[in-house]
Amino acid sequence: MPLLFWLKKAVTYFLLPLQLSLTLMLLGGILVWLTRRKILGRLCLTSGLLLLLGFSLKPVGRALLGPLETRYAPIPELAVGEALPPELAECRAIVVFAGGAANTARLPATLRLSEAGLARLVEGVRLARLLPEATLILTGPARDKGAPESETAAATLARAAESLGIEPQRMRLLTTALDTEGEVAALAALYGPNTPLALISSAAHMPRIMAYAEKAGLHALPCPANFAIRPDPKFRWNEYSADISGLTHSTGGIYERLGLLWAYLRGKA
Question: What structural domains does the chain harbor?
Answer without folding.
Answer: 3-68+242-265 (no CATH), 82-225 (3.40.50.620)
